[in-house]
Amino acid sequence: MRILPLAAALSATLAITACATTTSSTGRTQYVGAVSQAQLDQMGAQAFNEQKAQMRQTSDAAQKRYVSCVVNAIVAQLPADQRRIAWESAVFVDDNPNAFALPGGKVGVYTGIFSVARNQDQLAAVIAHEVGHVVENHHDERITRQMGAQGALGVVGALVGSRYGEGATQATSQLGGAALQTAFLLPGSRVQESEADVVGQRLMAAAGFDPRQAVNLWQNMIAASGGSRPPQWLSTHPDPSARIGELQSRATALVPTWEQARAAGRRPACG
């Protein structure tokens, strides 16, 4: 995704509102409110539309139905205010095993994710994680933290994050300053990634997807990457080995939730 068009639009239209303190569903204190929810939704829609304009979408109707089915099952377990959003998904032709979700109910999946998410439960682990970022106000939180440090450019970096792959992240890093990113931005991003893991695994279990498959997904991710990852303290994502251990512990505790969902008739058949 190109950064400059969105940056120009934001610098011209962004209105800063009073910041506030809130608590995430995991009990973590968050500082939010630099922009309104309406602005977040508008920014998410604009970023999504730019992505659709610049990247080819799949012509495979089965892939689109598959992703939409998983998204709908996850969304059905969200709080009422999030369920009321007209959620939209798109499948982009790209070998990068990636996905993203944006405020305003936008979900994007790259076709490369199908090489590591090998069944509907593993795809649900990916999508639920990304939706977790949205429902836990992570975009709002990142924007609020970065507003003073990087201005409009920081807003773009916070919104785009790592959702669109290394190119966008590197561009934002170069323009915003690598030292600032390492010292200030990345630790918070690791916290958010861990929180999205927690929330996403809860969501997938409540939707009737096997939470144990989140472990298999990350094992596939490691295998696909050849096991090479940067040191944990320099990464925007938790260390894979540590992440898998946490996912395994939570999966055991969430099996009863999954079984209850299945007993209640929530048995997704997406593909």
From TrEMBL:
<feature type="signal peptide">
    <location>
        <begin position="1"/>
        <end position="20"/>
    </location>
</feature>
<feature type="domain" description="Peptidase M48">
    <location>
        <begin position="62"/>
        <end position="250"/>
    </location>
</feature>
<keyword id="KW-0482">Metalloprotease</keyword>
<comment type="similarity">
    <text>Belongs to the peptidase M48 family.</text>
</comment>
<keyword id="KW-0732">Signal</keyword>
<dbReference type="Pfam" id="PF01435">
    <property type="entry name" value="Peptidase_M48"/>
</dbReference>
<dbReference type="InterPro" id="IPR051156">
    <property type="entry name" value="Mito/Outer_Membr_Metalloprot"/>
</dbReference>
<keyword id="KW-0479">Metal-binding</keyword>
<protein>
    <submittedName>
        <fullName>M48 family metallopeptidase</fullName>
    </submittedName>
</protein>
<keyword id="KW-0645">Protease</keyword>
<dbReference type="InterPro" id="IPR001915">
    <property type="entry name" value="Peptidase_M48"/>
</dbReference>
<keyword id="KW-0378">Hydrolase</keyword>
<keyword id="KW-0862">Zinc</keyword>
